[in-house]
Write a structure and sequence with these properties.
Elements (H helix, E strand, L loop, with lengths): L2 H28 L6 H16 L10 H22 L5 H28 L1 H6 L6 H24 L1
Helix pairs in contact: 1-2, 1-4, 2-3, 2-4, 3-4, 4-6
């Protein structure tokens, strides 16, 4: 196994853990409950997923890199909300919305990867600029906006 294959495998495993933890965390938010340690797992693996994407060799800035930078900035804002501002007022919405949208960014990349790697989806959108890809990502965005609003209202 080459080093690039090992890096890819580690990145995928980290991403899967993050996605599972994120689903548990968002489900907890929607029920008005704290997910406890799952939240910590989600935060750590969200950082690891986004940071590990920069380990892959690249020659130009890609949309996945931009998404990762945005996700890392969001993560920093969330940590400020929780640890510097104790979730007071506006900062509770930053925390809750940030948790939901941290998962969104990774699902967004997952959908993009699916269109790039699954032959049937790739045929629908070979360049990633075709309507089926745009519609899929817009549906994902709409679902996460709905989830964020619902989670913020529950908090």
């Amino acid at each position: 196994m080459s080093s690039l294959q090992i890096i890819t495998l580690v990145h995928v495993v980290i991403s899967i853990v993050m996605l599972v933890a994120g689903i548990v965390v968002v489900n907890g938010l929607l029920r008005g409950r704290d997910a406890g340690r799952w939240t910590t797992v989600f935060l750590v693996f969200t950082f690891a997923t986004n940071a590990s994407g920069f380990v892959f060799p690249f020659v130009k800035l890609l949309p996945s890199h931009i998404t990762a930078v945005i996700a890392l900035v969001l993560l920093a804002a969330m940590l400020l909300a929780k640890y510097a501002f104790a979730l007071a007022g506006f900062w509770r919405g930053v925390w809750v919305g940030g948790l939901v949208f941290s998962l969104f960014f990774d699902v967004f990349v997952l959908v993009a990867q699916a269109f790039g790697k699954i032959p049937a989806l790739h045929q629908l959108a070979p360049t990633g600029g075709e309507p089926p890809f745009a519609v899929a990502e817009l549906v994902v965005l709409a679902v996460f906006i709905f989830l964020a609003v619902k989670a913020i209202r529950r908090s």
